[in-house]
Write a structure and sequence with these properties.
alpha/beta; Cytosolic phospholipase A2 catalytic domain; six-stranded mixed beta sheet; four-stranded antiparallel beta sheet
Length: 330
């Protein structure tokens, strides 16, 4: 028995990149007579914007059907600017006492996309991430799906899927924390990227915990991890930076990006040590050389730059070959 885990990194509007790569993977699978992406994995894991992608693929239950990767990609075109609705009307580009964008506006878009489907109603297994900033703060891993029902894990069964995704994608500086509903205690979620921007390790451990030893079998685990692209800042520019430069929203909050990218690379290193190459796949690329690509810029021009960097990685830097390798393993 093989348990296949799909993991999607955080990265703001750059989430269109893994959606685009997954759309190409799906075409490869269908062309070879295999199942679509939503039917090719036992567990869908996501952080922040990656939680949007993972939830879209896992969103099945009652009348709901999972979204195809190409449809998730289109969501970034159609709803990107609505999710980044500014609540700042003062002088300058950023508010000092609240997030830059309306958490409620993002939540409304996610609810429109995902409906009122709860984690307990999911017919595909899903794991999200967010950081609880209310009483008893710490990492939270909301889950749902048939395997969790099988093992009696119903802690989040009444929580709407959109609510979890909204919390997971509420990055500090950009959004206020999102309140979690249908729980018996207070919980407010901030971006899962604060501790697991690359949730591949979370997904792997969750799979081992949830499936290992089922029916007396020792399963084999496969992890496919998709990034959103990474950018670097030259040392000559940052060597004299202080607090204002590292935390500057006008620069894309470099400290936050560095934390996200550093955690992502650490997990990639760990996964390479844990799994054999035939069971671990990582699709990630550099955004350098494609102009300024901000995490919170949903303009057509910025999205075009993200997609150009993504297709360059796929067509010229070995990304398509990695997708071929993954498609053959599924």
């Amino acid at each position: 028995m093989k348990i296949r885990v799909l993991s999607i990194d955080g990265g703001g509007i750059r989430g269109i990149a893994p959606a685009h790569m997954l759309a190409r993977l799906e075409q490869k699978l269908l062309d070879s007579g295999k199942l679509k992406v939503a039917d090719s994995f036992e567990l869908f894991v996501g952080t922040s914007t990656g939680c949007i992608v993972a939830a879209g693929l896992a969103a099945s239950g009652q009348a709901a059907q999972p979204l195809a990767p190409k449809d998730i990609e289109q969501l970034y075109h159609t709803h990107g600017q609505a999710m980044f609705t500014s609540q700042w009307a003062g002088i300058g580009p950023f508010p000092l006492f609240s997030g830059k964008y309306k958490e409620s506006a993002k939540g409304a878009v996610l609810r429109q996309i995902l409906g009122n489907l709860t984690l307990g109603e999911l017919e595909r297994n899903f794991l999200g991430t967010f950081y609880n900033v209310a009483a008893g703060p710490g990492p939270i891993f909301p889950n749902g799906g048939p395997q969790y029902r099988n093992v009696g894990d119903n802690r989040f069964s009444q929580v709407p899927l959109w609510n979890v995704v909204n919390a997971s994608s509420s990055a500090p500086f950009y959004f206020d924390p999102a309140e979690l509903t249908a729980l018996h205690h207070d919980m407010r979620g901030a971006d899962g990227g604060l501790f697991a921007n690359n949730p591949a390790m979370c997904g792997y451990v969750e799979a081992v915990k949830t499936w290992a030893g089922e029916n007396g079998e020792k399963p084999e685990f496969l992890v496919a991890s998709f990034g959103c692209g990474q950018s670097t800042v030259k040392f000559e520019k940052q060597k004299r930076w202080g607090v204002l430069q590292w935390a500057a929203p006008t620069r894309g909050v470099p400290l936050l990006e560095a934390m996200f990218d550093g955690q992502s690379e650490t997990v990639h290193y760990q996964m390479k040590k844990l799994l054999e190459p035939e069971n671990y796949f990582r699709l990630e690329f550099s955004l350098d050389g494609f102009g300024k690509i901000a995490m919170d810029d949903a303009s057509d021009a910025n999205i075009a730059r993200i997609l150009k960097a993504t297709t360059d990685y796929l067509d010229r830097q070995g990304g398509d070959a990695e997708l071929d390798r993954l498609a053959a393993a599924l």
